Amino acid sequence: MKRRTFLAAAAKTAVAATAGSAFAFEKKEPLKFAQLKLPYEFNALEPHIDALTMQIHYEKHHAAYVKNVNEAIAAENISASTESDLLRQASKFSAKVRNNAGGAWNHNFFWQVMKPGGAAPTGKVADAINGAFGSADKFKEQFSKEAMGRFGSGWAWLVKKNGKLAIGSTANQDNPLMDVSELKGTPLLAIDVWEHAYYLKYQNKRADYIANWWNVVNWEEVAKRM
Ligand code: MN
After folding, report:
1. Spatial separation of the C-alpha atoms in residues 6 and 14, rounded to whole Å
2. Does residue 37 lie within any of the structural domains?
3. What is the CATH number of the domain that holds 101?
4. Of 63, 130, 162, 195, which one has the fewest beta carbons inside 10 Å?
5. Ligand 1 midpoint to CA 20 (Å)
6. pLDDT tens per residue across span 8-61
7. Which domain, by its residues, includes 148?
8. In-domain check, residue 160
């Protein structure tokens, strides 16, 4: 090969190699849901939520949702850019994706909106709640009623929609970010009313679990999301 021909061939190879790697770059890694670190110890919400329930809930239930959604995203070749991007298009995907994406996201949210020694809402959250529901007690009453009234497994939520606060609930692991959800809006607060969230300590007494759960609500976190 003459030197000139060789250089031209080498240049072509280089272009091909660059194009090849550019293509590999474009083929993005599939989206992965993350399990956020629990912001407190398993026993931190005692006596309202017991340590064993927290540990099983976090290490078994939540971890399984995260593992399963990531498997399903890879298996079904789903190209969503973020967790909320995927949730917004939940109607397009399989039940496995919908249920486990919801389970992964909802629990990350749930851990953040609780904390040891939660008090009453203050400041702008208190103002917003008083404005929308009359008083903090009336809000609690309505939210608790929604959580009690959710038949079977699901969640009760406080959301902000078009600048207004609203209370509602979702079935299974649906959430207000999903296009398939009966309740839509920006989630501000949620309670998990699946039996796995309370059965060890409260058995069938969901009302007692809900009543005690108010002691661990992280109102600062609700304020941040408002
Ligand atoms: Mn749960």
Report:
1. 12
2. no
3. 3.55.40.20
4. 162
5. 44
6. 444 444 444 444 444 555 557 889 999 999 999 999 999 999 999 999 999 999
7. 49-226
8. yes
